[in-house]
Amino acid sequence: MIAIDSPSVGDPRWYQDWRSPVLDGTTKTWHLKVFAGYLFPDPQIRLTGWQLAVSYGPRDTDLDNTLPVKLIVAHDPSYGKPGGYAPGTVLWEVNPDVNGTVNSPNFTVLLNACLSTNPIYLDLVAGPPTMPEPCSLLALASGVVGLCLGALRKSR
Fold first, then answer.
1. How far apart are CA 156 and CA 153, in angstroms?
2. Assuming Cys at both sites, which of 7, 59, 124, 152 could form a disulfide with 18, CB separation 3.0 to 4.6 Å?
3. If we measure between CA atoms, which residue out of 80, 102, 6, 18 comes closest to residue 46?
4. DSSP state, 150?
5. Residue 11: predicted pLDDT
6. Dihedral angle, C-alpha 63, 47, 116, 72, nearest 10 °
7. Dihedral sign of CA atoms 135, 138, 144, 145 in order
8. Left (φ > 0), alpha (ψ -120 to 50) or beta: where does 12 sit?
């Protein structure tokens, strides 16, 4: 569960995705676009998130406390300025042993407010790190060996 709001006003908008489960052995990425409207009252946007402790719907158990989940900065227009984040910065990684709630979130991050013309892009990645198949690694290794032997033969 992720909530986005203004640090001074509150009134969060909550987001969650029950429509498409993450299947075993697969990785799913949600691309989030975060920006403030022209009348946004603060110079910062507060991003809050938590791992559900109780059942709120049919698919909230997909994580099963074993699936790695990370919130990663893909692009921050304020990078290089105070409060900006570099691409690839991990803002949050799920700790399966710690559940959270609205009043006790697992993480809170302040992002510099930006307009829709140049938003902040975040990636919420759920799933194990991708690993190449053994067959493709074998094909790559045999190709490299072939190139090396060919170069050795040509040099003689």
1. 5
2. 59
3. 6
4. H
5. 58
6. -50
7. negative
8. beta
Residue ranges in 78-133 assigned as alpha helix (H): none
In this prediction the pTM is 0.65
CA distance 25 to 126: 10
Instruction: Tell me the pLDDT tens digit for each residue of 93-152.
Output: 877 677 777 677 778 888 888 888 888 999 888 877 666 667 777 787 888 888 888 877
Distance CA(50)–CA(30), nearest Å, equals 16
What is d(CA 128, CA 130) in angstroms, rounded to the nearest whole number?
6
- What's the sign of the alpha-carbon dihedral 78, 84, 86, 87? negative
State how far the Cα of 133 lies from the Cα of 91, in Å rounded to an integer. Answer: 30
The backbone region for 11, taken as left when phi is positive above 0, alpha when psi lies in -120 to 50, beta otherwise, is left
Rounded CA gap, 108 and 103, in Å? Answer: 11
